[in-house]
Amino acid sequence: MRVVTLVLIALLALVQYPLWWGNGGWLSVHDLEQQLIDQQRKNNESKARNDRLAGEVEDLQTGTAAIEERARFELGMVKNDEVFVQFVKPSQAAPSAPGPAVSGSTRGTVSSAPLSVVPEPPARGRARRESHRH
User: Fold this and answer.
1) pLDDT tens-digit map of 39-60
2) What are the Cα distances from residue 47, in Å, to 40, 50, 56, 66, 104?
3) 31-63 burial by CB neighbour count: b if 16+ within 10 A, else e?
């Protein structure tokens, strides 16, 4: 009787081993499910990025507003009748003067003259109105 019990326990262990640790067992299924969740998250992030880029491409192909925005913010361009003014806080250092004149612009060359820094004007509006009430 004792031998039969030991043989049955050994057979049970042999049957259970592939179920838990074998190829396609519970542990490998859990690992695959985790990999699937990670891949779905990456796919969703990539889809959102692709949608954003597709919208940007459409804006660039159909209108001039997106092109103008890129020219202003990425290339620092201004229109012919505009004046570029940059406000800085008094605690910030003034931007350094650009180097020698740079060519390659479609509008001519950039001056190497030093920039004049205009301090930020005092805030108007609510703070000023509230001081008049008291």
Assistant:
1) 999 999 999 999 999 988 888 8
2) 10, 5, 14, 22, 38
3) eeeeeeeeeeeeeeeeeeeeeeeeeeeeeeeee
The CB density around residue 104, as the number of other CB atoms within 10 Å, is: 6
What secondary structure does DSSP assign to 87-121, as a single string?
Answer: EE-TTSPPPPPP-S-EEEETTEEE--SPPPPEEPP
Question: DSSP state, 77?
Answer: -
What are the distances in angstroms from CA 46 to CA 33, 52, 56?
20, 10, 15
For 81, residues 6+ apart whose C-beta sits below 8 A from its C-beta are none
Please name the residues in contact with 114: beta carbons below 8 A apart, sequence gap of 6 or more. Answer: 97
Q: Yes or no: say if 95 and 117 are a contact pair by the CB < 8 Å rule.
A: yes
Q: Is the pTM higher than 0.70?
A: no
Residue type, 75: L
- On whether the CB atoms of residues 98 and 112 are closer than 8 A, the answer is yes
